[in-house]
Amino acid sequence: MLTPFHLAIHVTDLDAARAFYGGVLGCAEGRSTDSWVDFDFFGHQLSLHKGEPFANAETGKVGDHMVPMPHMGLVLHLPDWQALRDRLEEAGTDWVLAPSVRFEGEPGEQWTMFFRDPSGNPIEIKGFREMDAVFAS
Fold first, then answer.
1. Distance CA 38, CA 119 (A)
2. Is 46 exposed, middle or buried (0-12, 13-18, 19+ CB in 10 A)?
3. Second label for 88, Cα 20 to 30 Å away, from 17, 60, 74, 97?
4. Residue 94: CB partners within 8 Å, gap ≥ 6?
5. What is the pTM of this model?
């Protein structure tokens, strides 16, 4: 049985974070104070605290692409990934790595997209046709 993870990261602006995580990504807001806010991040607890985000740089090589490290993300069923991609495109997202498929026809075939939240935190969202392919080798 999968259980929710908890991740706490810094953001520079809680109102911008609310607009992005709640408005664009569609995450339900939970408890909050004047210095942090919780979100239901697709079934996981994401706590956004006002502060300086972790430094990150495009140092991770995946296939032919360099991706930001460290980064957080999620794995979604492909139809949910496609719906989220559409919402992000409608919001005018500035892509780090535009939505695309990788490892096509291979074990672990996946759709991916990389973008940053308003504070610069990198996020990768992966989509799979079948969840048992997530750990395929």
1. 16
2. buried
3. 60
4. 115, 116
5. 0.93
